[in-house]
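subagent[fold] <- orchestrator: predict structure for attached chain, return tokens only, no commentary.
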Amino acid sequence: MKKLHAALAALAVAASTLLGAAPAQARDDRPGVFDYYTMSLSWSPEFCAGRGGGDPVQCATGRQLGFVLHGLWPQFERGYPESCGRSRISNKLRDQYESLYPSPKLLFHEWNKHGSCSGLQPQDYLALSAKLRDSLKIPAAFARPQQPVRVTPGQFEDEFHKANPWLAKDSVLPVCGSGGRFLREARVCFAKDGKSRSCSQEAIAYSQKSCGQANFLMKNVR
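subagent[fold] -> orchestrator:
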């Protein structure tokens, strides 16, 4: 009997170990299967001050880029799908949307990794990306500042809501780097029909963790 109990206990431990190793949510990488969109707007001065500084297109002196479109990402409430299809962007379509992203390479990368999960054709995905980007007004204080701007996370969100009263609560989130010292990007959440919606609790928690200091610095444009 003791041996039986020991065997059952060992099986229970093994089962709990296997269950604990399972992912919290299985990812579904089928095109069109997702909950909402996140539009990522990269803060170009921060990108160019770091690993992106060698980009001759985005980071050339005198470009004076502030917020630029990084991508439009299909999201789950937890996690996100990626690389959902094999369709490619034609050279004609690339030329049509060459100004949508700060660098031509980014257009192809974003479609392959994120856009392919939207369930849209490349033309429609890029058109939606342009529409949502153009719908958002950048607050005057953040539009190509010539001097660094220091703000709290709350002030950052408030400025966007003042400039865009139609935005839902918790629909614009700052994301910081360097231990929360510098703004890296803004993430703006939209429903699948393009209407503003609150970001997921996972996204809000990530923003709060990345921008965990009392305030952060937005580097000036160059």
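orchestrator: received. Logging for downstream: Residues 2-21 form the longest helix (20 residues). The first strand starts at residue 36 and ends at 43.
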